[in-house]
Design goal:
- The complex is a heterodimer of chains A (110) and B (282).
- The N and C termini of chain A lie far apart (47 Å).
- In chain A, 35% of the residues are buried.
- With 110 residues, chain A is of the alpha+beta class.
- The radius of gyration of chain A is 13 Å and the shape is globular.
- Chain A has one domain: Arc Repressor Mutant, subunit A.
- Chain B is globular.
- Chain B starts with 5 loop residues before the first strand and ends in a 5-residue tail after the last helix.
- The chains are: A alpha+beta (110), B alpha+beta (282).
- Chains A and B meet through strand 2 and strand 3 of A and helix 5 and helix 6 of B.
Chain lengths: 110, 282
Amino acid sequence: MSEKYIARSSSIAARMLAGEMMVMNSADSKFFTLNEVATAIWQAADGQTPLSQIVREQICEKFDVDYAQAQADAEHFVAELAEHGILLVSDQPFTDRAVGSPQLPQEPVQ
Amino acid sequence: MPEPKHVACVEIGGIPILLSTTDKIFYDLLLKRYEDFLSDTPTEFALEFEIIAPRPASDDDVRVRREGEQWLLERGDFFARWDPRTGKGLVRQNANPYSLDSVLRILHSLILARRGGFLLHAASAICDRRAFLFSGVSGAGKTTMTRIATPDVTLLTDEISYIRPDKGSMASRAGSGSYRAFGTPFAGELAKAGENTSAPIGALFFLEKGPENRIDDISSAEAVRRLMRNILFFAEDPRLVEELLATACAFVASLPIRRLTFYPDSRVWDDIRRFEREPLGV
């Protein structure tokens, strides 16, 4: 099976609030809230790291879950967000910066 | 000989904008429409209006896009170009006041986005020195809330609320009321301009009509989702969306945001007064 690479789209605004990652697509104003696992994948989507490595390092190790199940869930999640233009998916590492900023969104300062 | 230029400064939300035109009829209309918002404060923003042949106010979607560093604002009944670097812009429209309102609302939205503020589809009013915002979809009860308000309540708007950070206030330093709501001339069904005044925001309520009055918590994510749905903005621009999402999160993190289910009579204002005194207990 070929490897997958994922990157955050540059048309996405994202922000972490009260432990929840909120993302909004500026193209269609669709708004999503990501759970903890989805947030870990989103944050690791740098366009360079293979999805399988993200799953092993960010999901299996941190959430103590079985690799096969985690990989299947991650692929489902990635496909869903790609459909909404939030993540970009490729079978090769991304070379240009059509992808989102590497600077991750922070909690607002109060 | 060039026609004389008529100039008026209209200050909404503490942001004065100089409006100029050679069309005396349009100028008189402008003076009348923004009568309570005229000002002589020095301003960094200016719009010049060129009046064109009458066209009906348009129901088309407005298009706002960047062209280089400039913003282009376009709808069937107006076209405007505004340069944020100089603060100056040119508007071509007919003498329709609704077109003028739309142009001003968009310009204020763009200015506010860089300053951590926003315009919100919400009624707002001052009660016991605090501003309360009532947001919701059309028919949720924004105008109703202002109609059933008791006489001591000051109307800011029944349609478009004007919100800015209030970092220097005493309330802000005490950890609450870190945003301020301003009155606007932008009226909805009530057809009445708000008072030209402002107050620190006590709470934002998302409205629903129901058989009895109750105030419920909503999650931060749900509050941001609803807020983003009701902020006036133009989603095609990623930088603007990024700024507004950051602003919405900061706003939600700073103030009580609740769902207000209400039966439309003035008793709901008693709950709002009590909420003001015990904001954390609800």
